[in-house]
Write a sequence for this structure.
């Protein structure tokens, strides 16, 4: 007979005692969500209660709840560093995303640097080898896609943040149905969060006008007409469903083949062709054909 009763089984995350953690507030910015969502996911999968985690990182339960919902004051780095240790998360991508969100939260450079000086430096973790290999494979194509919507500094920041976010979600990406599709959703969300929107629709950036047709035109009148047509086309394209918009951008702005788009998005080539066909049909239905004189030049 054992001298002590067996320990009770761990409480599943869904049956934790206490009040259920609320969702992230809508007012949390995109950069804030970039690191907060994987931290929340890691906590929810850890089996820890808010009370247990608050004792480990020496933060009150109410403040920890606010932190995990994105409410209250923007958290100092020392708290996020403690969370990364307790939840076994890579520190370096979390540190970069935390800094980016601090700027979005209008924190001064002095405040950011003071937070960092008060703590140990985040360890420069190396991403998993498959993550590094995947980045080398797709980073150039991701940059071309982002360039259609963003100017150079924001483009580079969006792509870099994409791989930091993906690093934090890497185990989830590997466990997903298709890692390429998972990664593309991260890229798209990151790019669109930085893309100006008009009436809820994304606006194309300056790079979208860098087309072969415009380069071939030399007459000012022809150039202005083509710019006007391009503006009308981009406005119509912005209203396409997400998957059709991405296919049209990759096929016609980036110049990728069907097979290349298929590999990048993680979908079959038949799906790429179908999305392109439906997108073209929609665009032809909303954009009037050119005048007769232009269709049949003398």
């Amino acid at each position: 007979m054992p001298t002590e009763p067996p320990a009770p089984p761990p409480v599943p995350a869904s049956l934790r005692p206490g009040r259920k953690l609320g969702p992230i507030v809508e007012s949390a910015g995109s950069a804030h969500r970039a690191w907060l969502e994987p931290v929340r996911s890691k906590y929810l999968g850890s089996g820890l209660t808010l009370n247990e985690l608050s004792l480990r990182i020496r933060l009150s339960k109410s403040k920890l709840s606010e932190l995990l919902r994105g409410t209250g004051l923007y958290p100092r780095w020392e708290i996020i560093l403690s969370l990364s240790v307790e939840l076994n998360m890579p520190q370096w991508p979390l540190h970069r995303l935390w800094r980016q969100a601090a700027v979005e939260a209008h924190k001064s450079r002095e405040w950011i640097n003071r937070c960092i000086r008060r703590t140990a430096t985040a360890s420069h973790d190396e991403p998993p080898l498959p993550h590094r290999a995947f980045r080398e494979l797709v980073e150039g194509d991701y940059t071309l896609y982002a360039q259609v919507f963003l100017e150079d500094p924001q483009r580079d920041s969006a792509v870099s943040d994409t791989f930091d976010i993906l690093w934090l979600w890497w185990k989830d990406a590997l466990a997903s149905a298709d890692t390429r599709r998972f990664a593309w959703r991260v890229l798209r969300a990151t790019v669109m969060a930085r893309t100006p929107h008009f009436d809820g629709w994304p606006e194309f950036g300056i790079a979208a006008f860098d087309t072969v047709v415009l380069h071939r035109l030399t007459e000012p009148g022809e150039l202005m007409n083509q710019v006007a047509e391009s503006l009308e086309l981009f406005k119509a394209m912005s209203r396409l469903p997400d998957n059709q918009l991405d296919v049209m951008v990759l096929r016609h702005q980036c110049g990728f083949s069907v097979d290349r788009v298929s590999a990048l998005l993680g979908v079959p080539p038949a799906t790429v062709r179908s999305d392109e066909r439906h997108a073209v049909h929609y665009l032809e239905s909303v954009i009037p054909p050119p005048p007769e004189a232009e269709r049949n030049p003398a």
Remarks:
- The longest strand covers residues 197-198.
- Residues 180 and 242 are 16 Å apart (CA to CA).
- The chain has 16 helices and two strands.
